[in-house]
Amino acid sequence: MASIRKNFIYASIYKVLELALPLITSPILSRRLGAESLGIYSYSYAIAALFTLVAELGSYRYGMREISKARLSNKKLNQTYSDIYFTHAVNGVIVTIVYFLMIPFFWGQHPLVYILQSLCIISNALDNSFLYVGVEEMKPLTIRDTCVKIATFVLIVAVIHKPNDLIAYIVIMNVCAIVCKFVALIYARKFVHFVFPNLLNCVNHYKHMVILMVPAVSENLYQNVGKLFIGVLGTKTSVGYYELSTKATIPKNIVSTLGTVMCPNIARLFSEGKKEDAIRKFKRSLQISMVASYFAAFGIASVAPEFAPWFWGEGFDVCAPLMTGLAFTIPVWTVGEVIRNQYLLPTGKDNQYMSAFLIGVFANIVGCSILIPFVGAMGAVLSMIFAELIMSIVQTFYIRKEVSIFHSLYATFPYLIFASIMLLATRVFSYIVSLPLTFKVLLEFAVAFFVFATLCLIYEKTLPNKKIILSAINLVR
Questions:
Q1: What is the pTM of this model?
Q2: 3-state SS class at 258
Q3: What is the pLDDT of residues 277-312, one digit of tens each?
Q4: Which of 13, 32, 183, 224 could lock 46 by a disulfide, CB 3.0 to 4.6 Å apart?
């Protein structure tokens, strides 16, 4: 079994790659496809993604937890993997059929777009990444994704040149994803052997997976409800601007990476009766994640006004305020993310996990329906901030009798101050310095990092017992 530190490194690369490709290709696509075609893609994908999450059936979260419990016995591991994967695959086939029955109600003037988006459902039905996370072996996933993402990038650069190439873009994205899944299926033979599924076990797994499917679907709906409402109440071009702005939340993947590698570890500690060790790791992980979220949120806000037009091109400066608003969702989101994936999920509190997301979805839908007609895409941003806050409060309430997080959060307050100073210093620098846009953006990144890193280093060296960043190394041993 790989160490937590190695898994964290590999998982970080894996998570970053999930959104790194869209980030790297977004300036190319914004210039070649344009906001309207990107909006059509984003809107159609948002709809297909809801079906994909139903097809996924909560297998990722449930599977990694059950695999982590069964890995000490090869026989049990083989059976558990086979039962979960079979259940997941059959469900994927059923959902794909339902999708084809329902998409005529959505496709409008773009039927081929919606038909091709079905490939993402098929891709998910093939997915077995829960195995690698459960056995704490992230290296194969990372290598696989790196190779396929590079190939995807090359194809996009070579093939996509104009708005009419939208179909080719959809094919490239989905076919490359399917290749990823096939590679992982073949390599899985190193860890498990597929055996004949036990139907009784499959039914039992299905019940638990449905429970975890609800928050998975809710999470996806929660992330995409803004796009759906903007598409209905606004224009597809506005959806395109909003979609590009969501790239500002890529740092969430780094924060969630720690949860990915810590979840099976904490679940194992709880199953071994080492509750104090598990809670200690949970609290320290929360602190480290919060510090990272402060840097990400205020760092993005620091450079957003210049970054948007520089990265995506002339006319995309409207993305800057949307980027800033979405960036400030990151710290609020982080509290809930750590609680649900590093405490509720490892301890089997699936009902609380599910209900928190349902509450968040409801809050987001209400917020979007009220705000978007008045302030457009910014209404989706404000609604998301409100929903994230509600979810974090609800989840904190759920665990209040078992573990208190307020002291852990209070310990991160100085880093919030440092992040605020970083934002102020970077904006002052931007105001007084006149340079070509490229140099200005790069220097803004440098100023932001230097200010935050310097303040944190001085603080942790002056008060050794207050170390959070430096203690991160010990957490992922």
A1: 0.69
A2: helix
A3: 888 888 888 888 899 899 999 999 999 999 888 888
A4: 224
